[in-house]
Amino acid sequence: xxxxxxxxxxxxxxxxxxxxxxxxxxxxxxxxxxxxxxxxxxxxxxxxxxxxxxxxxxxxxxxxxxxxxxxxxxxxxxxxxxxxxxxxxxxxxxxxxxxxxxxxxxxxxxxxxxxxxxxxxxxxxxxxxxxxxxxxxxxxxxxxxxxxxxxxxxxxxxxxxxxxxxxxxxxxxxxxxx
Length: 178
Hints:
With 178 residues, this protein is mainly α. 85% of the residues lie in helices and 0% in strands. It is built from 4 helices and no strands.
Protein backbone atom coordinates (compact mmCIF):
# COMPACT_ATOMS: atom_id res chain seq x y z
CA UNK A 1 0.00 0.00 0.00
CA UNK A 2 1.27 3.49 -0.84
CA UNK A 3 2.32 5.50 2.21
CA UNK A 4 1.49 9.25 2.38
CA UNK A 5 4.53 11.44 1.61
CA UNK A 6 4.13 14.09 4.28
CA UNK A 7 2.08 15.09 7.30
CA UNK A 8 -0.19 17.32 5.25
CA UNK A 9 -1.11 14.43 2.95
CA UNK A 10 -1.73 12.16 5.95
CA UNK A 11 -4.05 14.76 7.45
CA UNK A 12 -5.94 15.17 4.17
CA UNK A 13 -6.36 11.38 3.92
CA UNK A 14 -7.65 11.15 7.48
CA UNK A 15 -10.15 13.95 6.94
CA UNK A 16 -11.46 13.16 3.47
CA UNK A 17 -11.43 9.40 2.84
CA UNK A 18 -13.54 8.05 5.75
CA UNK A 19 -16.28 10.67 5.28
CA UNK A 20 -16.52 10.14 1.56
CA UNK A 21 -16.36 6.36 1.65
CA UNK A 22 -18.79 6.03 4.59
CA UNK A 23 -21.35 8.33 2.99
CA UNK A 24 -21.12 6.60 -0.36
CA UNK A 25 -21.12 3.15 1.23
CA UNK A 26 -24.30 3.99 3.14
CA UNK A 27 -25.90 5.38 0.00
CA UNK A 28 -24.96 2.31 -2.04
CA UNK A 29 -26.19 -0.03 0.71
CA UNK A 30 -29.51 1.82 0.87
CA UNK A 31 -29.94 1.78 -2.91
CA UNK A 32 -29.04 -1.90 -3.14
CA UNK A 33 -31.45 -2.81 -0.32
CA UNK A 34 -34.30 -0.84 -1.91
CA UNK A 35 -33.61 -2.30 -5.35
CA UNK A 36 -33.33 -5.87 -4.08
CA UNK A 37 -36.48 -5.56 -1.93
CA UNK A 38 -38.43 -4.20 -4.89
CA UNK A 39 -37.24 -6.87 -7.31
CA UNK A 40 -37.71 -9.74 -4.82
CA UNK A 41 -41.24 -8.60 -4.01
CA UNK A 42 -42.02 -8.65 -7.74
CA UNK A 43 -40.49 -12.15 -8.03
CA UNK A 44 -42.56 -13.35 -5.06
CA UNK A 45 -45.75 -11.91 -6.56
CA UNK A 46 -45.05 -13.50 -9.94
CA UNK A 47 -44.21 -16.84 -8.36
CA UNK A 48 -47.43 -16.74 -6.32
CA UNK A 49 -49.47 -16.05 -9.48
CA UNK A 50 -47.77 -18.81 -11.48
CA UNK A 51 -47.73 -21.50 -8.77
CA UNK A 52 -50.38 -24.19 -9.18
CA UNK A 53 -52.01 -26.30 -6.49
CA UNK A 54 -49.89 -29.28 -7.49
CA UNK A 55 -46.76 -27.13 -7.07
CA UNK A 56 -47.89 -26.15 -3.58
CA UNK A 57 -48.60 -29.80 -2.77
CA UNK A 58 -45.12 -30.81 -4.02
CA UNK A 59 -43.55 -28.10 -1.85
CA UNK A 60 -45.49 -29.22 1.22
CA UNK A 61 -44.62 -32.90 0.70
CA UNK A 62 -40.93 -32.06 0.14
CA UNK A 63 -40.91 -29.78 3.18
CA UNK A 64 -42.45 -32.46 5.41
CA UNK A 65 -40.32 -35.30 3.99
CA UNK A 66 -37.19 -33.30 4.73
CA UNK A 67 -38.09 -32.45 8.31
CA UNK A 68 -37.08 -33.93 11.65
CA UNK A 69 -40.76 -34.48 12.38
CA UNK A 70 -41.01 -36.89 9.44
CA UNK A 71 -37.78 -38.67 10.40
CA UNK A 72 -38.95 -39.17 13.99
CA UNK A 73 -42.45 -40.32 13.00
CA UNK A 74 -41.19 -42.67 10.30
CA UNK A 75 -38.43 -44.09 12.51
CA UNK A 76 -40.97 -44.69 15.28
CA UNK A 77 -43.29 -46.39 12.79
CA UNK A 78 -40.50 -48.69 11.53
CA UNK A 79 -39.32 -49.62 15.01
CA UNK A 80 -42.88 -50.28 16.18
CA UNK A 81 -43.56 -52.42 13.07
CA UNK A 82 -40.43 -54.53 13.56
CA UNK A 83 -40.87 -54.90 17.32
CA UNK A 84 -44.54 -55.84 16.94
CA UNK A 85 -43.73 -58.50 14.36
CA UNK A 86 -40.79 -60.03 16.29
CA UNK A 87 -41.91 -60.10 19.94
CA UNK A 88 -42.87 -63.47 21.33
CA UNK A 89 -45.86 -61.95 23.18
CA UNK A 90 -47.46 -60.85 19.88
CA UNK A 91 -46.87 -64.07 17.93
CA UNK A 92 -50.57 -64.58 17.26
CA UNK A 93 -50.86 -61.00 15.90
CA UNK A 94 -47.82 -61.04 13.58
CA UNK A 95 -48.86 -59.86 10.13
CA UNK A 96 -45.41 -59.41 8.55
CA UNK A 97 -42.80 -61.83 9.84
CA UNK A 98 -39.09 -61.41 9.12
CA UNK A 99 -37.77 -60.55 6.47
CA UNK A 100 -40.65 -58.01 6.55
CA UNK A 101 -41.81 -58.22 2.93
CA UNK A 102 -44.82 -55.93 3.51
CA UNK A 103 -42.61 -53.35 5.23
CA UNK A 104 -40.20 -53.44 2.26
CA UNK A 105 -43.14 -52.83 -0.07
CA UNK A 106 -44.27 -49.86 2.03
CA UNK A 107 -40.74 -48.41 2.08
CA UNK A 108 -40.37 -48.81 -1.68
CA UNK A 109 -43.75 -47.19 -2.28
CA UNK A 110 -42.87 -44.30 0.05
CA UNK A 111 -39.53 -43.70 -1.72
CA UNK A 112 -41.11 -43.93 -5.16
CA UNK A 113 -43.94 -41.61 -4.13
CA UNK A 114 -41.76 -38.98 -2.42
CA UNK A 115 -39.02 -38.73 -5.04
CA UNK A 116 -41.08 -36.99 -7.77
CA UNK A 117 -42.52 -34.51 -5.27
CA UNK A 118 -39.08 -33.66 -3.94
CA UNK A 119 -37.63 -33.30 -7.45
CA UNK A 120 -40.52 -31.04 -8.54
CA UNK A 121 -40.00 -28.86 -5.51
CA UNK A 122 -36.24 -28.70 -6.08
CA UNK A 123 -36.78 -27.76 -9.72
CA UNK A 124 -39.04 -24.90 -8.71
CA UNK A 125 -36.53 -23.76 -6.08
CA UNK A 126 -33.75 -23.97 -8.68
CA UNK A 127 -35.70 -21.68 -11.00
CA UNK A 128 -36.27 -19.23 -8.17
CA UNK A 129 -32.58 -19.35 -7.22
CA UNK A 130 -31.69 -18.59 -10.83
CA UNK A 131 -33.94 -15.51 -10.79
CA UNK A 132 -32.41 -14.35 -7.51
CA UNK A 133 -28.91 -14.87 -8.94
CA UNK A 134 -29.84 -12.61 -11.86
CA UNK A 135 -31.07 -9.99 -9.38
CA UNK A 136 -27.85 -10.27 -7.36
CA UNK A 137 -25.78 -9.95 -10.54
CA UNK A 138 -27.77 -6.86 -11.57
CA UNK A 139 -27.25 -5.27 -8.18
CA UNK A 140 -23.53 -6.02 -8.22
CA UNK A 141 -23.21 -4.68 -11.76
CA UNK A 142 -25.06 -1.49 -10.86
CA UNK A 143 -22.89 -1.00 -7.77
CA UNK A 144 -19.75 -1.60 -9.85
CA UNK A 145 -20.81 1.04 -12.36
CA UNK A 146 -21.52 3.54 -9.59
CA UNK A 147 -18.16 2.83 -7.94
CA UNK A 148 -16.37 3.33 -11.27
CA UNK A 149 -18.24 6.62 -11.73
CA UNK A 150 -17.26 7.76 -8.23
CA UNK A 151 -13.63 6.83 -8.94
CA UNK A 152 -13.68 8.96 -12.11
CA UNK A 153 -15.06 11.92 -10.18
CA UNK A 154 -12.54 11.40 -7.39
CA UNK A 155 -9.67 11.21 -9.89
CA UNK A 156 -10.90 14.41 -11.55
CA UNK A 157 -11.07 16.15 -8.17
CA UNK A 158 -7.58 14.92 -7.28
CA UNK A 159 -6.25 16.41 -10.53
CA UNK A 160 -8.00 19.71 -9.83
CA UNK A 161 -6.61 19.81 -6.29
CA UNK A 162 -3.12 19.04 -7.64
CA UNK A 163 -3.47 21.89 -10.16
CA UNK A 164 -4.62 24.26 -7.41
CA UNK A 165 -1.76 23.11 -5.22
CA UNK A 166 0.71 23.78 -8.07
CA UNK A 167 -0.75 27.24 -8.68
CA UNK A 168 -0.54 28.08 -4.99
CA UNK A 169 3.02 26.82 -4.86
CA UNK A 170 3.96 28.98 -7.89
CA UNK A 171 2.18 31.96 -6.38
CA UNK A 172 3.90 31.43 -3.06
CA UNK A 173 7.33 31.08 -4.73
CA UNK A 174 6.73 34.34 -6.71
CA UNK A 175 5.79 36.16 -3.50
CA UNK A 176 8.92 34.95 -1.70
CA UNK A 177 11.11 36.09 -4.63
CA UNK A 178 9.70 39.63 -4.44
